[in-house]
Amino acid sequence: MKSIVPIVLHSERLILRPPVPEDAEAIESFISDRRVAEMTALIPHPYPKGSCIHWVHLSEQQWIEGKKASFVICLRDSGELVGAISIFNDSDRHNEVGYWIGVPHWGQGYATEAFRRVIRYAFEDLDFPVIVTYHFIHNPASGRVMQKAGLLYLGTTPLGASRGDQCFDEVRYGIAAGQWRTNLATI
Length: 187
What we know:
By secondary structure, the chain is an alpha+beta fold. The chain has six helices and eight strands; from the N terminus they run E-E-H-H-H-E-E-E-H-E-H-E-E-H.
């Protein structure tokens, strides 16, 4: 695998770029919404006011260390921030993708478009051999995003995922680089 270095990615409607301090307020306004936070494993609720700047700086450090690629998802036409997506290597779970979209932008296909672009980056630029990720069972919309992005259903682990002290069934999806390339040839 190649090193993760800061990069800007483009898709038809989106720009995915590393977060900058000026993004903190917009990010915080979205992730402070319980509906966004409760679908993720790591975003606390209530979100501590003013803490998002820490995440921006942490993301910058993770880029520098080559550990994690975190992008803000922005509309290509206006530059408006609508969400975030990250790809990282979790030694227990291979290469994972995590994402969220702000509630006003749900249902517009931005998560799927961003996910597809990050998968392409992972396989073409980083030479990742496989991507495996999951969603909580109570978030089937995330599963639809994963399916539309080309991932394959791998199984469900009862109480396999947690958020704080709560455990939930974990629904896993994944795809190997070779299968992804085969799928592209059939589109």
